[in-house]
Amino acid sequence: MESLNINGKTLRLTIQRKPIRNLILRLKTPDELLVSAPYACSTAEILRFIETKRSWIAAHAEKLAQRQARQAESSADGSLAVYGRPVQLQWVIGKGKPRLQSERLVLYGPDSQPETKRRAFDQFAKTSLEAEIGQLRPRWDQVIADYHLAQPSIHYRRMTSRWGSCIPAKSKITLNLKLIHYPLACVDAVLWHEYAHLIVPNHSQRFYAVILHHMPDYEVRKALLNGDL
Predict the structure, then answer these.
(1) pLDDT per residue rounded down to tens, the chain (229 residues)
(2) Domains delineated in the chain
(3) What is the DSSP letter of 4?
(4) C-alpha dihedral sign at 173, 210, 208, 221
(5) Which residues lie closer than 8 Å to 125 by C-beta, 6 or more apart?
(6) Lowest CB count within 10 Å: 15, 50, 150, 224, which one?
């Protein structure tokens, strides 16, 4: 991973080569720039392209930072998104089972400390994602069965820089609990991405060919996940 300086701010630079025709820039966070590039594109060409987009990068980094700040404020006020749908968080001191209603998520705990709320929400997210993944995974289980591969175990935790990870040797997939905030189409894209690593354990041209063969709109879903749509 390289770095670059944009208006005095250091950004981490990640380059991924894919079976695409054009260079694509995407800010994963206000501090990290992801570049998708054709396999034939050299690093020098990529860096020259970035130079022409400095103003765009600076403006969008600031915009993304402001959006994240607003999201943090909204979360503190009790509003958040569940599978892409805005809901109001209601916190109840006491015992009870989490309830997701059309416009409200009701959570329970012994006190109103931030850590207590975070643990309660994470447990809700884990339980909910397990149920949704249970509906999504049979399709991908069948795909890897066609490759004579075993079904993976799926785990959940908070992750800071990835939506998911896969350890092919252990047939183990881990998904980010933060996926609870995004539409199920995005969740499914991340799930399939990690399943595909059981078939191809790298980000080679063959990996993306497998991805797109089974999910032609994968790039659209990833753009939605990364806030580009």
Answers:
(1) 577 777 777 888 889 998 888 899 888 788 888 899 999 999 999 999 998 988 888 888 888 777 666 554 444 447 899 999 999 999 999 888 999 988 899 999 999 898 999 999 999 999 999 999 999 999 999 999 999 999 999 999 998 878 999 999 999 999 999 999 999 999 999 999 999 999 999 999 999 999 999 999 999 998 888 764 3
(2) 2-72 (no CATH), 79-223 (3.30.2010.10)
(3) E
(4) negative
(5) 156, 177, 178, 180
(6) 150
